Amino acid sequence: MHSTDHPDFSGLWIPLVTPFHENAVDHNALHTLTTRMRQAGVSGFCACGSTGEAAALSHEEENAVLATVLHASGGLPVMMGAADCHLGRMLDRVRELGRQPLAALLVPAPTYIRPSQQGLLDWFTRIADASTHPIVIYDIPYRTGATIELATLRTLARHPNIVAIKDCGGDAAKTQALIDDGALQVLAGEDVQIFSNLALGGHGAIAASAHAHTEHFVALLRLLASGDLASARAIWAPLQQHIRGSFAEPNPAPIKGWLARQGWMSAELRAPMMPASEAVIDQLCAIQLPELPTMQALRAA
């Protein structure tokens, strides 16, 4: 089982978008967004993941984003995305981030390289050895080009500093095996798989679509954790339309468009990302969700 010395990654984590205004990070909007999410009852935040357009940020911008999120998080745990395809640069970055008060580093396989399984073992092991923070493996082969096999993940799970996985691997059997093993906390990384992942025994979710209707997602995960699948299904059914719309065009364009319609930030992205079509944003904004059960009932759950 995962060490009790490490943070608990259960519940809903928000992989925060990075707001821009005239191509600069809009820190006021980011602070306000983080505060809103915190007040909605989320468990934690992820800064500078793929939803945060980290690939389009300099390390200086990433550091400034992290400072804003930490300030606005109100003590909620924050994990930080750390990605590269050059091991030396990656280890330097991991050591630099070691000075920050983080819950974990979210680390994918090296993009573009497509290493062997032994290469992936070496990559994650050397990063975990160098990090003062726990490592959450980000298994997302359609972005990295690398598939982390179950045997490789089981070996990595024996490392005392590798504690969880953001599961975007698209392999239901592998997901179930990891949940059954219990060596890693398994977090749903594909929003459409939140219900099945949690119902099978997964621990939580890192969900970009939960920037909207956040309280509904929080309620969903609480009900799933309590085993009340019937009540969870009643919330999940209408959320699925929102999730499909959130990923109808490349993430995070639709959700940024929705946030812009609320007046919370600009819909601006950095090239080569393009704003979502008005039709997709119209569809997202037209979705109506039912009222939630009372907070007292959710706390009881």
TrEMBL record:
Chief place of localization: cytoplasm
Involved pathway(s): Amino-acid biosynthesis; L-lysine biosynthesis via DAP pathway; (S)-tetrahydrodipicolinate from L-aspartate: step 3/4
Reactions accelerated catalytically: L-aspartate 4-semialdehyde + pyruvate = (2S,4S)-4-hydroxy-2,3,4,5-tetrahydrodipicolinate + H2O + H(+)
Entries under Gene3D superfamilies matching the protein: Aldolase class I
Keyword annotations of the record: Amino-acid biosynthesis, Cytoplasm, Diaminopimelate biosynthesis, Lyase, Lysine biosynthesis, Schiff base
Sites marked Part of a proton relay during catalysis: S50, Y112
Protein name: 4-hydroxy-tetrahydrodipicolinate synthase
Biological classification of the source: Bacteria, Pseudomonadati, Pseudomonadota, Betaproteobacteria, Burkholderiales
Residues binding pyruvate, per UniProt: T51, I206
Catalytic-site annotation from UniProt: Y138 (proton donor/acceptor), K166 (schiff-base intermediate with substrate)
UniProt GO molecular function: 4-hydroxy-tetrahydrodipicolinate synthase activity
CDD domains named among the record's database cross-references: DHDPS
